[in-house]
Amino acid sequence: MLNKYKDRIKNSDSDHVSSHKGPSSRGNSAVIGEDVKIKGDIISQEDIIIAGEVNGIVQAKSHHVHVADTGVLNADIIGNVVSVEGSVKGNIVGLENVIITPTGNVLGNIECPRLSLEDGAKFKGSIEMNPADPTASLTKMKAHRVDPASGKPDIKAS
Fold first, then answer.
1. Is residue 85 predicted with pLDDT exceeding 80?
2. Do 32 and 51 meet the contact criterion of CB atoms below 8 Å apart?
3. Taking all residues of the chain, what is their mean pLDDT, rounded to a whole number?
4. Hey, which bits of the chain come out as E strands?
């Protein structure tokens, strides 16, 4: 099962991910399995594959964050590349690219220089491309979180 996710992160977005030096260049990636539930913030220094459930913030600024088709996130995400096959309720900041696949479902705002919404992808929110300072978005994330009760973006905070 682990190889399934490692192969997916290596091969599925190879055209979208620029090569960079670091731990991920050796093929390291953290995997949050289908039966794992995390409540809190995740800060990763390697690529991360999320097949389980996460409530909080996922941060991997120099790496790829992949939400597998079984992944359910009520979380804000910041990563170099963010790809979504599962469900995300929260804001996404992709420093390089964000990819929403046909099975992906995103409810929240997206900030990135490049965005791929594949045929069949579900998305509700706003998109800001080429933001002035995408790293500043991390500090704004908590102010614009999705309200878990209503499932709607919280636009009254600023």
1. yes
2. yes
3. 79
4. 29-32, 37-39, 42-43, 47-50, 53-67, 72-84, 87-89, 92-100, 105-107, 110-112, 115-117, 122-124, 127-129
